[in-house]
Amino acid sequence: MGRFVVYRLLNMVPLILGITLLSFLVMSLAPGDYLSSLKLNPAISPAVVHQMEAEFGLNQPLIVRYLKWLWAVMHLDLGVSLAYRVSVTKLIAARALNTVILALASMVFSWVLAIPLGIAAAARQNTVWDRLLSFFAFLGMSVPSFFLAFLLVYLALRTGWFPVGGSFSVFYSSLSPGMKIVDRFDHLVLPVVVLGTAGLASLMRLMRSQILELKNSDFARTAHAKGLSPRAVLYKHVLRNALNPFITLAGYGLADLLGGAALIEAVMNLQGLGLLLLDAVRSFDVYLVMGSVLMGTVLLLVGNLIADVALVLVDPRVSFWSERAR
Question: What are the pLDDT digits (tens) for 101-123?
Answer without folding.
Answer: 887 888 888 888 888 888 888 87
